[in-house]
């Protein structure tokens, strides 16, 4: 897919509370890539396949989501923001960034959002066991998967710089095709 696009597609994933939306918003403004927040797209299009009573959240219909995004992803120039990644086609992405956050910091962030009980514990366990990092490495070529720490404002600035540099390098390498 990347051979026919003039701009890359980027996936930013990680446990809820790791800073994906903040990072994607900044990268979108700097790079001009279009930020696609999967949660917002699902909400707007009612792309749900039920409700998870235990985690207290709607369950995204993954097939409908892929159908919804297919044409947009073909064009390139997209940043996908979601806390899962294994259902997105491998061909969509040129790079995958997995945000990781210290468990104590993550606990505080999620508690501030109102996460409690099983929902809070489940997300902390997801981070402890690096579930999303492993999912990304199993779903995509491991050479395009990068782990980024996301604990502090300095980490955010560093990650913005790293991803911006990656995007600029991709543009240079793919400008003569």
Layout of secondary structure:
Blueprint: E1 10-14, H1 20-31, E2 34-37, H2 38-45, E3 48-52, E4 57-60, H3 62-75, E5 78-82, E6 95-100, H4 103-112, H5 117-128, H6 131-139, E7 145-149, H7 153-173
Parallel strand pairs: 1-5, 1-6, 2-5, 6-7
Antiparallel strand pairs: 3-4
List keywords for this structure.
7 strands, two-stranded antiparallel sheet, single chain, five-stranded parallel beta sheet, alpha/beta, 49% helix, Rossmann fold, 177 residues, globular, 7 helices
Give a verbal description of the structure.
This protein is α/β, with parallel strands linked by helices and 177 residues long. It has one domain: P-loop containing nucleotide triphosphate hydrolases (Rossmann fold, 3-Layer(aba) Sandwich). It is 49% helix and 19% strand. The protein has helices at residues 20-31, 38-45, 62-75, 103-112, 117-128, 131-139, 153-173, and strands at residues 10-14, 34-37, 48-52, 57-60, 78-82, 95-100, 145-149. The strands form two sheets. Strands 2-5-1-6-7 form a five-stranded parallel β-sheet, sandwiched between helices. Strands 3-4 form a two-stranded antiparallel sheet. A hairpin with a 4-residue loop joins strand 3 (48-52) and strand 4. Helix 1 packs across helix 7 (153-173) and helix 4 (103-112) packs antiparallel against helix 5. The radius of gyration is 16 Å and the shape is globular. InterPro entries: Adenyl_kinase_AK6 (IPR020618), P-loop_NTPase (IPR027417). It is an enzyme of class 2 (transferase). Its EC number is 2.7.4.3. Belongs to the adenylate kinase family. AK6 subfamily.
């Amino acid at each position: 897919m990347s051979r026919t696009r003039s701009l890359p597609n980027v996936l930013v994933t990680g446990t809820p509370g790791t800073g994906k939306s903040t990072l994607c918003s900044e990268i979108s403004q700097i790079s001009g890539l279009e930020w696609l927040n999967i949660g917002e797209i699902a909400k707007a299009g009612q792309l749900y396949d039920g409700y998870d009573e235990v985690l207290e959240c709607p369950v995204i219909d993954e097939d409908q989501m892929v159908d919804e995004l297919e044409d947009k992803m073909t064009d390139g120039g997209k940043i996908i923001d979601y806390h899962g990644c294994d259902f997105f086609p491998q061909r969509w992405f040129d790079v995958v960034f997995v945000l990781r956050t210290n468990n104590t910091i993550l606990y505080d962030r999620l508690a501030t959002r109102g996460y409690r009980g099983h929902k809070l514990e489940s997300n902390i366990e997801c981070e402890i066991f690096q579930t999303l990092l492993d999912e990304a490495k199993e779903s995509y070529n491991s050479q395009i998967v990068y782990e980024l720490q996301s604990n502090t404002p300095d980490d955010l600035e560093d990650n913005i710089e790293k991803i911006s540099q990656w995007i600029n390098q991709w543009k240079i390498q793919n400008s003569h095709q």
